[in-house]
Amino acid sequence: MVRAQRLHIDNVVLQHPHVLPAHFNDGVAHNLGAGVDAHNDLFGRGQPLHGGGGEEAGNGHLSQSYAPEGPRRPPGGGNAWVTLAKIGITLLTLGLLYHSVFAAPDTAAAWRQLVAATLSGAGRGPVLAALALVPLNWGLEAWKWQRLARHLEPRHSYGRSLRAVLVGLTLGFATPNRVGDYAARILELHARRRLDAVGAVFLGRYAQLVATVLAGGAGLLYFIWNFYLAGYPAAQVGVALAFGLGGALALLPLYRSRLLLALLVLVKPLRRFRRYLAIMPTYPAGALHAVLGLSGLRYAVFCAQFLLLLHAYGTRAALGPGLAAVAGTFLFKSLVPSLNALADVGVRELSATHLFGLLGQPALPVLSASLSLWVINIALPSALGLLWLPGLRVLREAKNQR
After folding, report:
1. How large is the angle between the packed helices 393-400 and 77-98, nearest 10 degrees?
2. HSE of 392 in the Cβ direction (CA atoms, 13 Å)?
3. Cα-based distances in Å from 252 to 27, 217, 248
4. HEC string of the chain?
5. In the beta sheet, which residues pair with residue 62?
6. Which residues, listed in sequence order, are joined to residue 56 by a DSSP beta bridge?
7. What confidence category does residue 11 fall into, taking pLDDT thresholds of 50, 70 and 90?
8. Which of 16, 39, 20 has the alpha carbon at shortest distance from 31?
9. How far apart are CA 392 and CA 204, in angstroms?
C-alpha cells in the first residue's frame, strides 16, 4: 500500500504561510491567523492531505493525493537543529533578560529598589508577599489553560499546562510580537488538535481581556467622573451608560461565539480565520464560567501585587482610588499593541504615572513599583521557563523521530 511521504517544514511554510502563529497582546487579539494546518503536522509524523493521503478509499482504489516528497535528511540532522534552536533561544533569552533587568537604566534602578526594599524592614513584608503571589499568578493561568485544553484532550494534565505556560513566557520573551507565548501552548498538544488549539488560546486570552475591560472600565469611570466631568451630571450618566454597553458587548463574543463566527463570514478579509475559531461554540457554558472566573482571580492577583509594591515604595493612595488607578493602568496596557515583552513596560509606566499623578502621588515610587511588577511576573518566570523548554512536546516528538 502506498504511504504518504513526510511533508517537510520547508514545503509547508512555502505552501501554507498563513499557518504561522499570530500575536495576541495580553488578552486582546491583534491577528487571529495562527496555528497549524488541519491536514499537515509540522513537527510530528507526516499526515495525509485531502483525499486520504494514500489510504484506500471507499471504492477500493488508492487515493491520488500525496504529500510532496522532500529530500531525505541524514540521520540525526533533525535532532542537531533542535539542539541548536534550544541553545539559541536560551542564549537570546538570557541576553534579553540581562539587558532588561540589569543593563537598562530604568529597570536596573527598579531592581535595586526591589532588593533594597526586600532587605529593609519597612518594605520587606509587602515585597515578599508580592513575590509569593507569582506562583499563584501563573498557577491560575496554567489551571485556566488546562480547563481549555481538556476540551480538546480529556487527559491533558496540569503539569503539561504549567510547562506550556512557562515555556510560552520564555519563547514570548525572545520572539517578535510574543509569538512564542502562544505557539508553546499550541505545540504542546497532539498534532491533530493543534488547529483547534488556536481557538482555545484565543478563548482564554479573550476571557482575560473581558476581566480587564470590565474592571478597567470601572476604574476609568471613577477618574472621568471625578476629574474630567465633575459638575456635569448628564454627561456622567451618558458615560456610565456607554461603559455599561461596552462591557455587555465585550461579553457577547465569549458567550455567543456563533455571532463572532457569523461576523467573520460576512467580512471577506476575515473569512480565513473562521476555521481557527470554529471550536469556540463547542465549549459549554460551565466551562466558560470557569475560565472567566479564573481570569478574574488572576486579575485580582495582579492588582494585589501592584498595590503591595506601591505600598513598599511609599505610595499612600487610598484603597479605592488606588484600585481604580491600577485597573485603568492594566486596561491601557492591554489595549495598546506591543512588539514584545520589553515593549509592554513603557505603556504601563506611562498610564500608571498619569493616573496616580491625578491622585497626588509622586511619579518615581509608582514607576518603580510598575517596573518591579514586570520584573517579578515576566522576567523571572521567563528565566525559569528555560528549564522546561526541553520538555515541550514538539521537541520530544522531534527527538523520537531520529
Report:
1. 150
2. 30
3. 15, 16, 6
4. CCCCCCCCHHHHHHHCHHHCCCCEECCEECCCCCCCCCCCCCCCCCCCCCCCCCCECCCCCECCCCCCCCCCCCCCHHHHHHHHHHHHHHHHHHHHHHHHHHHCHHHHHHHHHHHHHHHCCCCHHHHHHHHHHHHHHHHHHHHHHHHHHCCCCCCCCHHHHHHHHHHHHHHHHHCHHHHHHHHHHHHHCCHHHHHHHHHHHHHHHHHHHHHHHHHHHHHHHHHHHHHHCCCCHHHHHHHHHHHHHHHHHHHHHHHCHHHHHHHHHHCHHHHHHHHHHCCHHHCCHHHHHHHHHHHHHHHHHHHHHHHHHHHHCCCCCCHHHHHHHHHHHHHHHHHCCCCCCCCHHHHHHHHHHHHHHHCCCCHHHHHHHHHHHHHHHHHHHHHHHHHHHHHCHHHHHHHHCC
5. 56
6. 62
7. very low
8. 20
9. 20
Nearest in space to 382 (alpha carbons), one of 177, 100, 167: 167
198 against 296, higher pLDDT: 296
pLDDT digits (tens, 9 = 90+) for 277-310: 999 999 999 999 999 999 999 999 999 999 999 9
Model confidence, pTM:
0.70
- How is residue 162 written as a grid cell? 504549567
Check if the beta carbon of residue 122 is closer than 8 Å to that of residue 316: no
Q: Cα separation of 123 and 128, whole Å?
A: 9
Apex CA 311: angle with CA 306 and CA 314, to 5°?
125
348-373 pLDDT, tens per residue? 677 888 899 999 998 888 888 888 89
Q: In the numeric block, which cell numbers belong to residue 117? A: 526594599
Rounded Cα distance, 220 and 370, in Å: 18
